[in-house]
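Please, structure for the following, as C-alpha cells.
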Amino acid sequence: MPNGAAVETAAGRFLFREIVETLLLTVLIFWSVNAATGRFRIDGSSMEPNLHNGQYIIINKLVYDLRAPQRGDVVVFQYPHDPSRDFIKRIIGVPGDQVTIERGTMYINGKKVEEPYIGQPGSYSGSWEVMPGEYFVLGDNRNNSSDSHSWGVLPAENMIGRAWVIYWPFKDWGPVPHYVFDLRSGTAQTANQ
C-alpha cells in the first residue's frame, strides 16, 4: 500500500497548490480592480438632473494617467477644504481658461457656451481664471451645489478619477453622461465613453 499513500500525498499537494494559486490570483485581480477603479455613492442633488442622490457609480482612477482631464468630464475628487470628503462635479474650465458666468450664462474664454446638461442656470455671476494645475468644476444643479463658484478652483492633485458607470440602482444602470465642449460653436455635446 505504500504506492496508494504516495498517490494520496501527491493529490493532496496538488489540491493545496491549486487552492493557494486560486487565492493568490483572486487577491491579484481584486487588487488590480481596486487600483484601477473605485466606487462612489452620490450624496445629495448637486448633479441633478443627470445623477441622483443614492446612486452608486464606478470611477476610472487611471484615465488621467493617460490623458489630461477635459471640459465636460464628470469627476470625483477630494474636497479641497476637507480631503476626507469626496465630491462629484463636472469640469467646466481647464488650465488657461477664463470662466465667466453672467446672470446664469456661461462663457469660456469669452465664448458663450450652451449647456444642455443643466436643469436651470445658476443665479450667480462671477469670473475665474484657471491657472496651471487647477480645474474649475460645477455641479449640474447650479443653484444647489457647493463647487468652484463658491470655494474656488480644484487643485489637480485632488482629482480621484473620472465617473464611468452608474451601477445601482439597477434600473439606472448605464454610462455617466460626459460632454465635449466645442468652443468654436459654443456647444456642449454628449461624449462617447
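The helical segments are 2-36, 63-66, 148-151. The longest helix spans residues 2-36.
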